Structures
1.
Amino acid sequence: MSRPDGREVTALLVVDLENIRARYECLRCSGREGPVFGTRAVSEFVAAIRADHPQRCTAPQEINR
Ligand SMILES: [Zn+2]
């Protein structure tokens, strides 16, 4: 997958506002985080997962550009 700006999509952050839950799927290591449930847990998860997952990711990490 690629975006119009050419950046590779490496993860999906799925937020379900109807059921108040969120999950994260890394397309590089096929790892999954969550789901988490509830307003507080979802907001914390969304705020932190992009920084947290790479620390647990088993796929080789690119240096952030
Ligand atoms: Zn990963």
2.
Amino acid sequence: MVISRHITGKIRSARYLVEAILLPVYFFLPWLRWGEHPFIRLDIPNRKFYLLGNIFTPQEGYYLHLFLIGMGLSLFFFTTLIGRVWCGWACPQTVFTDVFDWIGRTILGSKYGKKDASKPGKALVHFLWILVSILGALAWVSYFADPYEMINEVKSSAFLASPPVWTYFTAFFTATLYLDMAFVREQFCKYACPYARFQTVMMDANSVNVTYDFKRGEPRRKAGVQEGDCTACNLCLVVCPTGIDIREGTNVGCIACGKCVDACTKTMGKEGKKTLIGYMSETQAYQPGTKVRWIRPRSLVYGTLLLCVLIAAGTLLYNRVPLYANVLPDRIIQPMEVPGGLVRNFYNGHLLNLTFEQRELKVEVADSTLRSPVHILLGGTEKPAIQVSGNDSQDFRIILETTPLPEDNSKPTHQISLRITDLKNPNFQLKKTIPFRIPIK
Ligand code: SF4
Ligand code: SF4
């Protein structure tokens, strides 16, 4: 485990500010309500995702695909422009490490991370780390289980006798978070995070990243003889959480946290000079005074693709009807001809109301490839509509009947387009195409 030396400075203060905003977001987002409903929740047992008052189901998997593609392209786009800034500034791994470090430094002071720190002090640090791990694990679990229900369950007398499933997950994530923060930390970023492997391909000489101004810095001071500006104080090295030497060039282990920038700003400040390490592109390090090229083929391609995905997702969301309908021919009762030349087809339907309001849904034949008119019966009766409660589903049966004209009999299968409309809101409408079979005589 590397516990890097603490350093103060402008970047450290700015990161504290960002973390002060992010931590409440991580912890309290699942507690927020949109009206009476969850602001955000992935309800895995019921296969529903709640977001901003909307309910999404696995049948709408294309939103997930667009989300993942969008996330991937954002990763490409922002890494091309500003390097691995997500890792150093916003990733929960980094934010939580800072929280754990703050606890360690508050309790142990300058002895934090040293072997000769007092044993009771170390024990207290680990105790507080476990407490924070429990809180972190609960925060994570509450993205999947209702935190208000979790509180009620804890209060109930049956809690200890039969703990709910979320308690096992909380225990697992507590152990994971504690072990990660106490023993792995930024070594995860260096060796395990897949994003670190990507970054070298996504970045180029014009990407803004933490970079060492080797032109000014080298050759660094040796045995008191100074040629370049680097004093070889090695402060940038000892503050680095991943234990790398940024003076050796862009490194896969650099998470762009900027600690070395603050370190060098301090050292160079004593010499009355500008920092040798800063957020700049390699081109700027080679040719001081050049401006960052934000617009270049790579950023244009990623930016355009990201914009296309955003437009596609926006259009789909704008036109989305929060209703899922599935209508399948009955497997048991086959299409049949009844006396009088009438042909009947039987179907089983399933309606899923993805809103929180009750809906009265009218099912009617909108179009058909049959020449003869098609009559519809819901559940075998002339029922006008199906009632579906908010955030609920309803199974139903449909019978379609027609008296086929001679030209209809020439084709064994026809297409029927069903229109499902909310009686109170005609814009809440969905179409579904189903087959209609004429039995062979
Ligand atoms: S090299 Fe600097 S920016 Fe990169 S991880 Fe180390 S301290 Fe952070
Ligand atoms: S902190 Fe600056 S001066 Fe000190 S070793 Fe690093 S680059 Fe050189």
